[in-house]
């Protein structure tokens, strides 16, 4: 990823969930494949040095389960996470507001959320001139489950603007 910037945002789409069937969307659990994906994401984030200082996690069951498995791989305490109905319901603008409200001492923030918001937020924040072209093309078309995008800037989260940060990479799990 090259130069590490002072602030990094990791936008993670939850791992693969069971089909809705008769369950309310908010109550959909992870599928077995999703459990494997989430564990691999945690290990991968740790291996890449992307250990968050804080996490914002959608209140949906599948995102909470994704976080629990990712957190185990990261070896971070559960207390760094804030469960949020606002992340579950967020569009790009409201998710960006949540990111901007992150306390100044947080240097690396992980958001565990949903499509299309996570990829659209990455695409909205990305500076096309400074971002990885392949990563930008991927977030513009949407990302599969358990995929994360890494955005970075020397500016604190409160100062992040549309088209103002570098999209460094997008990482997807190996196909099952």
Search tags:
19% strand, 6 helices, 6-stranded mixed beta sheet, 176 residues, Rossmann fold, alpha/beta
Walk me through what this model shows.
InterPro entries: His_Pase_superF_clade-1, His_PPase_superfam. This is Histidine phosphatase family protein. It holds the Pfam family His_Phos_1. This protein has one domain: Phosphoglycerate mutase-like (Rossmann fold), CATH 3.40.50. A six-stranded mixed β-sheet has the order 3-2-4-1-5-6, sandwiched between helices. Helix 4 crosses helix 5 and helix 5 (117-125) runs antiparallel to helix 6. The protein contains six helices and six strands. The protein is an alpha/beta fold and 176 residues long. The radius of gyration is 15 Å and the shape is globular. The model has no long low-confidence stretch (mean pLDDT 94).
Q: Could you state the order of secondary-structure elements as H and E?
A: EHEHEHHEHHEE
Number of helices: 6
Number of strands: 6
Rg:
15 Å
Quick one: biggest sheet?
Answer: 6 strands, mixed
Protein name: Histidine phosphatase family protein
Pfam families: His_Phos_1 (PF00300)
Organism: Cellulomonas denverensis
